[in-house]
Design goal:
This protein is an all-alpha fold and 154 residues long. It is 71% helix and 0% strand. GO terms for molecular function: peroxiredoxin activity. It holds the Pfam family CMD. Residues 64-146 form the Carboxymuconolactone decarboxylase-like domain. This is 4-carboxymuconolactone decarboxylase.
């Protein structure tokens, strides 16, 4: 079941459908922080990415989607000190250092959405090689190249 995630009633309905036991909290109206996080997540990652993340959520994984949306996107990404492009480039460097290619792919799209150029993405990944190691960075370059090629192809 896919809910309209801009609509708090749709979100609560999704939560009720997915609720399957005592491990889940009672359905609640999304907080303002969640709503801000959802809007930011959509802005950076794109509607298709966010819709897919929630559509694929089940009773076990929905709490993680809520947590990430509320805490990461609703708190950290909302801070005004760094612009979104800088946040995206920092995120790419950290994901490259952690060897998280799948997450990196999503955030390469986010960096492009936030106005980062291909050259800036390349430089952020190259910079991470010095601190995280070349083998991790090679994998990051492969993942980024795949997303950039798809982006440029339209």
């Amino acid at each position: 079941m896919r809910a309209d995630l801009y609509n708090p009633k749709g979100y609560v309905a999704l939560r009720r459908v997915l609720q399957s036991g005592a491990s889940m909290s009672e359905p609640k109206t999304p907080s303002a922080q969640f709503e801000q996080g959802l809007a930011m997540r959509r802005q950076v990652m794109g509607d298709a990415f966010v819709d897919k993340a929630f559509a694929e959520a089940d009773a076990f994984t929905l709490p993680l989607q809520e947590f990430v949306t509320e805490q990461a996107w609703g708190t950290v990404w909302q801070r005004g000190v760094l612009d979104l492009k800088t946040r995206s480039l920092l995120t790419l460097g950290m994901l490259a250092a952690l060897g998280r290619s799948q997450e990196l792919k999503g955030h390469v799209r986010g960096a492009l959405n936030n106005g980062a150029s291909v050259a800036e993405i390349q430089e952020a990944l190259l910079h991470s090689a010095v601190y995280a190691g070349v083998p991790l960075c090679v994998d990051a370059f492969r993942a980024a190249r795949e997303v950039i090629a798809a982006h440029e192809a339209g």
